[in-house]
Design goal:
mainly alpha, 7 helices
Length: 179
């Protein structure tokens, strides 16, 4: 089958059936691109997730662009990105067209109250899976904890966390090479 069409369909399905944003997509992306299609390895996926969340823009689009580019360069990236973005665009367009008819509907409001806790779980699971695959140990576990607390409690910009972590990783690599 045509790889462009296959990647478009795969990412369209991911975009269509994932609530909660990019991080909630991670389990479905992993199932499709690692287990089913074998387009990337687990280690590559971990690296792609780190890069995608460090880059400007929408996480889901970033990760689809990186995977699509790995498959077939610019045209592969375009097919995967369109597949990811099109479902959200169509759904948001439909909601925008009809939202005024439902905004005061108590049933719809109750449905959204029920969906919110499930979305938290959809985001939590990939977070724990990422932590496990990042091989956190008793020496490195403090990094994500301190980073999360700095962002949440003190209000440090995530940009500074990424910059500091990048510099720290670079320096750590330099020190380990010399020893």
């Amino acid at each position: 089958m045509n790889i462009y069409w296959e990647s478009f369909k795969t990412f369209f399905k991911i975009g269509m059936f994932t609530l909660g944003g990019g991080y909630a997509m991670i389990p479905l992306i992993e199932e499709e691109v690692i287990n089913k299609h074998k387009w990337v390895s687990k280690d590559e996926m971990l690296d792609l997730i780190a890069i995608a969340q460090s880059c400007p823009g929408v996480f889901a689009i970033n990760i689809s662009v990186f995977i699509g580019y790995k498959l077939r360069k610019v045209r592969g990236a375009t097919a995967a990105a369109l597949g990811t973005a099109l479902p959200s665009f169509l759904i948001i367009l439909a909601i925008a067209m009809f939202f005024h008819q439902f905004e005061d509907n108590k049933v719809i409001a109750a449905m959204f109250r029920g969906i919110r806790p499930a979305v938290v779980a959809l985001i939590a699971v990939p977070t724990f899976n990422l932590a496990r695959r990042a091989r956190l140990n008793k020496y490195t576990l403090w990094i994500p904890i301190v980073s999360a607390l700095a962002i949440w409690w003190i209000g440090v910009s995530p940009i500074w966390i990424i910059i500091i972590a990048g510099i720290g990783g670079f320096l750590w690599g330099k020190l380990n090479v010399k020893s």
